[in-house]
Amino acid sequence: MTTTEIVSTDAGDARITWHRATKARLVLAVSHGAGGGIEARDLQALAHTLPGHGVTVALVEQPWRVAGKKLAPAPRTLDTGWRGIWPAVARPGLPVISGGRSAGARVACRTAVELGAAAVLALSFPLHPPGKPEKSRAEELLGAGVPTLVVQGGNDPFGKPDEFPAGGSYELVEVPYGDHGFAVPKRAEIGQDEAVTVITDAVLKWARSLG
Question: How far is residue 176's CA from residue 161's CA, in Å, rounded to a whole number?
Fold first, then answer.
């Protein structure tokens, strides 16, 4: 069952599209990046797959997207919007995984402890701007403070899997050949559907380990 809810935040109105599990044991609240919305292939795949395995998925559109703007605001404004939706995603009374792709993953990491998230799902974590590895955002990831799963494309210009710091308190799953949107080239040894299955399988396995 899918329902939509408008939530007022201090950054404006956000929108949650609920994909509910019949017998939910977890909620995954997951948001989009700075250049796209909840139609991203990974977010849609999770929303259609996880509810059948006891995980309710809440796809969150940040206020700037709901307002029709094309550029994301400053990080602190994104955090404000995320804080504002949290009571709604926590309302079912279940443990909540705080998730996001790209800029949304950074928000989830920055606010996880403050909001009482059970865990963080970081899809395509932007470890650094393309071509600028010296501008690392590893501290945000390492500071999440809760169990964290990173799902990263093997060819992500914002940070390839082997660029991530070793010994961090997170798990990392690579999507072979994937770019920042998990698209794989036609010459790749795996197809697009297989790449998406890598994502959903990894998140399902990790979610089961959380309880």
Answer: 10
